[in-house]
Model the fold of this input.
Amino acid sequence: MDIFVRPGDSLWHFSEVFKIPLPLILDSNPNINPQFLRAGQRVRIPGFVTID
Done:
C-alpha cells in the first residue's frame, strides 16, 4: 500500500501505526531519505493492500 506523508509524519510513526518494523519500511523505500520526508511524498507500506 502507498500512503502520502503529511506534515510531521515520520517513518517511525508509520512503523508504530501499522505495527511493522522500521527496517522493513526502510528496505521497502530505498529511494527515500528518512531524515528529509516532505509532505505529499509517497511511502510504500509493505504487507498492506488497499481495496477499492
